[in-house]
Structure formats: structure tokens, C-alpha cells
Amino acid sequence: MPPPRTAALRTAPDGGTLGTLLRRYEGAGEPLSCEPVAEGLLNRGYRLATTRGRYFLKHHLDGDSAAIARQHGATARLGAMGLPVAPPVPDSDGRTVAVIGGRCYALHPWVDGRHRDGGELTCAQSRRLGALLGLVHTCLERVMQQSPLPEAEARVESADPSDTFELIEELLTLARGRRPRDSFDELAEHRLVERRALLERHAHRRPEAGAEPAAGWVHGDFHPLNLLYRGAEPAAIVDWDRLGVQPRAEEAVRAAAIFFVRPGGTLELSKVRSYARAYRRATVAGTEELAAAVHRVWWERLNDFWMLRWRYQLLDRRADPQFPAAAALSVWWTREYEAVQDAFAG
């Protein structure tokens, strides 16, 4: 996976920009305050208070109007089907994207709620989470029928371990050369050496090319920071920037690996099992499809070092807190491979 782009500074739009923006919306009022939302690594979101209410203001960094319009149309149609989403507010002309000073903005209703990771969910709530993601996938299949498949989102071949070995050596050099070194650098060196040894032992298990998994429209970034809860129930699935065509079952596995990872880098397999069974029922996905997805995501994780690439290549430390658990998970997942497969596909 290539390193994500370096994030822009989190500076709120100035008063002139906010005034120009809000004048496009009937009844939006005058701006009172605009504060950055702390959560998220790439999104630029703001809590906007006006004389008429509260909003979530989204600054779309990519500025791809066609892709943004596709996201907005999808969420509007999903909302009409009863899914918990927060579609953008249309302006006086019915448009949902405002381009001001070359920047793309969208105004959404403010949703009161909080994020909950898998550790806070019961097995019953984990089932509802799996069913919700399954519903997202099946509903997207219906609402996106008329949308052309993006050519840029063709299937990417699985990671080549020879390329990963080169990256490991580069990151090891950077980690060892840090001055002054800290505990994170020591951990990074340990995990890089450990992962190199794992890959040497398991390189023959690279997923075979040619067997294309079932693909469809997916949220693209389904994890705890993109799901708001109100009490015990999901209130809104947010951040549809990565809406696209990908293997559906792989999104289900990736999401579970984020929701249900413990701080020590293990998965709560009882919750994973409840989640996966509900997802399979909601999508009619077979056990073989889930098992193959687990293998591909395991291999992806084994070869992925995006958090260290952020730190050492982009000099961006915002992902550092996620690294200990994520790095430990790859090792534990390899050791408990059969148990993880059984939890998803058993």
C-alpha cells in the first residue's frame, strides 16, 4: 500500500469563507464558531455553529467534484432506504458541493453521537454491526447500479514479498538512524526484524494471482472513527471519501480487524464470529468467500507498513498510537491463523 498523502494543516476556514459559504444555504444563519474535529487522520472536518443551528463542515482535500457528487448521491439514496447516514445539505440551487477559493466544501447536519470500538460492544451489538455492514453492501449494489465502475479501482495484485523486504531494510535504516532514539524507534526496529523473519517463513503463502474475488461498491473505510453511536445503536456512518468498487468480503475482514483488535494486538474472536455470521447472512456471502478474504487481508497486513512510512518517510507521527497493536496483530494473526479463519468462516 503506498503511503497516504501528507495531511494539510488543520486551519479552520476564515470568517469571509464561512460567510460566503453559508449565504448559499437558505436558513443556515450566520457563523458563530468553527472548530476542527479532532478525530480522523486525513479528513478535514469542522464543527460549525451558526445563529440557526449546528453543522459538520467537510473540506474535501482532493477536490474531485465528480467523485464527491457520487458520494453525496449514494448517501442520499442510502438515507432514503433507511440506513443511518448524514447526507449533505443541498444549497439554494440544489447543489451539495461548494467551491470557494478553489476549495471544495460540503455542509452536513451535525449528528450527536460518539465512537465505540469493539471492546465496548456486546456480542449482540457485534452481530448488529456485521448486519449493518452487510446491509450497506447490499444497498450500495442497488443504489449504484447506474454508476460506471471507476477504472482506477481495478484489482491490485497482492504484495510481492521481495518489494516488502526492500522496504523493511529502508525503514530499518531510518529507525536505527533516529537521533535521539526513543521507545517507539526501538519497538519499530524490533517489529521490522520480526516481520522480516515471518515473511521469510511464509513467502510461499502469497495469494495466487488470477482468482478474482467478488467485488462491488463498498464504503471503503469502515472503522470505529467513521461510525457514530447514539446510545447502543448506530446513528450515522460517515466519511464516504473512499466509496468505490472493491472486494466486499475484504472490507468486512478489514473492518473487524480494526473494531475488534485488543490493545495487546489480539482479536476478540467471539465477537468476530458473531459479526461475521451476521455479515454472511445479510449478504449471502459464502464461507469460502470469507475464508479467502481473511487470507488476502492477512497477507496484506503482513506486508503493510503504512504507519512506519508515515513516521519515517513523511515525518508525520499522527498514526504512531495505532502502531503497537497493529504490529502485534500481524504476529498474533499468523500464529493463530486457523482460529481466525474459523471465527470468520466457521
Question: Would you write up a description of this structure?
Answer:
This protein has two domains: 15-109, Phosphorylase Kinase, domain 1, CATH 3.30.200; 118-144 and 191-345, Alpha-Beta Complex (Aminoglycoside 3'-phosphotransferase, Chain: A, domain 2), CATH 3.90.1200.10. The chain contains eleven helices and nine strands. It has helices spanning 15-22, 65-80, 123-143, 161-176, 183-202, 248-259, 269-283, 287-302, 306-312, 323-335, 337-345; strands spanning 31-36, 44-50, 53-60, 98-100, 103-109, 215-218, 227-230, 233-237, 244-247. Strand 2 (44-50) and strand 3 (53-60) form a beta hairpin. Helix 6 (248-259) crosses helix 8. It is globular, with a radius of gyration of 21 Å.
Write the layout of secondary structure elements.
Elements: H1 15-22, E1 31-36, E2 44-50, E3 53-60, H2 65-80, E4 98-100, E5 103-109, H3 123-143, H4 161-176, H5 183-202, E6 215-218, E7 227-230, E8 233-237, E9 244-247, H6 248-259, H7 269-283, H8 287-302, H9 306-312, H10 323-335, H11 337-345
Antiparallel strand pairs: 1-2, 2-3, 3-5, 4-5, 6-9, 7-8
Helix pairs in contact: 3-7, 4-5, 5-10, 6-8, 7-11, 8-11
